[in-house]
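Note to self: keep these together.
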Amino acid sequence: MIDANTDLTWWNLIPQHLDPVLVHIGSFPVHWYGLMYLAAFFTCYQVIWKTVTREGYKVTKEQLDDITAWIIAGVLIGARLGYVLFYNLPYYMDHPTEAILPFSTEGGFHFTGISGMSYHGGLIGAIITTSWFLRKNKLNYWQWINMIVSAVPLGYTWGRLGNFINGELYGRATTASIGMLFPMDHTHTLRHPSQLYELTFEGIVLFFVLQWFYRKEFFKNHMLSLYLIGYGTARFFIEFFREPDVQIGLNEAGLSRGQILCMIMIAAGTTLWIVRAKMAKAKA
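Structure:
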């Protein structure tokens, strides 16, 4: 709890002045978070097209439009299913319809919205749908994958901004001046704005790092590996500042579910790099 004598600054109180709802259209609320998804997909689309133009790839707007639709489907479906499976499976085993429908029948039938999306689930979903599309249409698989993952970090900066505006996924308690008071935290405790940490390091910083690597011939065909390792590493350390999911908490080693998934990402990225390097050497 905040001591009554604690001097709070404008920085500490920013979340208190943010409204998750942009506007109401009749009785329907338009949330900032939903618009952030649109901004994320639009941003990635523009970055990928800029890469196509810069590199001189033989890619058409129609191909990019089609693959974008499949990526969006993969992200949304995967993110929702990932949350259900990774973070709250016992609850959804008892309430299966709420996993896919924005309604609840407890205490009467009412609209609840779909709450809970998993980054790792969205990543898996996007990889599956994108891979299926590329194989089906016989497109250059690694050229497309390298372009897409190099654009992704800038896209999900919007998602983290949406989390911040919603006042959700906030960080652990802190006495440092960087802490903020989030309306959803009923303990009235200063907490790390971990959404902004993720926006900065998993998003903006990682984006520019990947763009730099993309321009280097040696790394150009290892973008997926670099992305998995880079994001996994950044997220792993930021999780030490993020409040663990209440229904899961930390494991015996003091690690969150997100950190476990990030360790798998790092291992997968490292393995992929080794395998692709060996394949390239064998062809040489």
